[in-house]
Write a structure and sequence with these properties.
The chain contains 17 helices and 13 strands. With 416 residues, the protein is an alpha+beta fold.
């Protein structure tokens, strides 16, 4: 049986750029599944929405590449400083260059090195809770934005005191894959802020002359040995700060929003550190921040469909395990469910998330300590959602709670 050209298929139009889709993707996904089991259209190409198709296709690095050039073109940024930055990012590299640049920092994100950050993670979240918990009410998304990035500052070797200076630039960069050209001036401004900041960070370390065991030192040594260019060091620092800021804080906020509806599970997260592992993995299954754009670099035939070179695809790996074909009762948050069909939140293939072990440990440990200090939490206002394409999540999650004293901090040792 011959394959059908993807352009000849009758597919649903999936309005992934709309606020309504960001608030609740389920109705539109249900319509799309009725029309085709794994494909839909969107304004700039096609959407792969089924678990099995994403699991099978996403690792095909021989056929697919992250669609940086397509996104830059859609944004009207070809040849601009931000467009060039996007083009040259580590996630836009392939083959030996990708291996070289990723290898310069990969050692810091291995499980053993990540486990060494446990005290930093605990002290960071505890210090934040000391400041925020007495309020009795706050926007959890705002609180969460201070947590993983502070840990990343420590891992890189910077000062968290600089966070207010660069936070808006990081927030804006998280919208890079939203494919909204009106954001380009803000993205360009954010790039200027971050490049000036990384220049100062590198210069201060070189002037200091001290040798430290952190990411900044590793990057400087990689530059001095010729492994990385000066520009790659600057851009990699921006990438790492952005990665440490956006996805982890969004995922923690998503997890808390799910647990607000289950007070019994919130209390269990406070008393049982190991249960937080299940709670966090189930949150990843139900929703995670990143959907993945790819461009087809060599013709693909899959499940009777021919996808030609040059086709722009978006993989909904952040919603893949809502697929009723592989998950029973997918919209029910159940940390003890069968997880045989593992979530795809961290992607697959050569560009699988470098920081996934750090993200898991931060969110698990953060949730455990937060659940102890913020007791009886409830929603205190309207939930506002971020744009869906790119880095999705909750923009505002107002909560109120009973504040427990700092003395309840757990002595439970995290599983590393």
């Amino acid at each position: 049986m011959s394959s059908v050209q993807i352009s000849k298929l009758s597919l649903a139009d999936l309005p992934i750029e709309t606020p309504a889709f960001a608030r609740d993707p389920n109705p539109e996904l249900a319509k799309a599944r009725l029309q085709h089991p794994w494909l839909a259209k969107f304004s700039h190409g096609y959407v792969v929405h089924s678990y099995r198709a994403i699991r099978d296709l996403l690792p095909r690095d021989d056929k697919l590449h992250i669609a940086i050039s397509a996104v830059v073109e859609i944004m009207g940024a070809t040849g601009s400083p931000w467009g060039n930055f996007m083009r040259d990012m580590m996630i836009g590299m392939r083959g030996p260059d990708h291996v070289r640049v990723r290898g310069a920092v990969a050692g810091f994100f291995k499980p053993r090195r990540v486990a060494a950050q446990l005290d930093r993670i605990r002290s960071t979240i505890s210090d934040l809770l000391d400041k925020w918990a007495p309020k009795g009410e706050f926007d959890f998304a705002e609180f969460s934005a201070k947590f993983p990035i502070t840990v990343m500052f420590g891992l890189i070797g910077g000062s968290p005191a600089d966070l207010p200076r660069i936070q808006q630039a990081l927030e804006t960069q998280g919208l890079s894959f939203s494919m909204d050209p009106s954001l380009l001036p803000d993205l360009e401004a954010g790039l200027r802020v971050m490049m000036a900041f990384t220049d100062e960070l590198i210069a201060a370390r070189r002037e200091d002359g001290g040798v430290r065991d952190d990411l900044l030192q590793a990057l400087i040594e990689a530059e001095d040995s010729g492994v990385l260019t000066p520009r790659e060091v600057r851009e990699l620092l921006f990438f790492l700060f952005g990665a440490g800021y956006d996805t982890s804080k969004n995922q923690l906020t998503l997890a808390v929003s799910m647990l607000l509806e289950r007070p019994d599970l919130w209390e269990r997260c406070a008393t049982d550190r190991d249960y937080c592992i299940l709670a966090v993995e189930e949150a990843f299954r139900l929703a995670s921040p990143s959907n993945v754009p790819r461009v087809v670099i060599d013709d693909i035939e899959y499940e009777g469909v021919f996808i030609p070179k040059g086709t722009h695809l978006i993989f909904l790996n952040n919603l893949a395990t809502r697929d009723p074909a592989v998950v029973t009762d997918p919209m029910t948050y159940d940390p003890e469910r069968d997880q045989s069909n593992r979530h795809l939140a961290f992607g697959r293939g050569d560009h699988q998330c470098l920081g996934m072990h750090l993200a898991r440990l931060q969110i698990e440990e953060g949730l455990h300590l937060i659940a102890q200090r913020l007791q009886n939490p409830m929603l205190a206002g309207e939930i506002r959602w971020r744009r869906f394409p790119g880095v999705w999540g909750i923009e505002s999650l107002p909560i109120r709670f009973d504040a427990a004293p700092a003395a309840v901090r757990s002595s439970v040792t995290a599983r590393a």
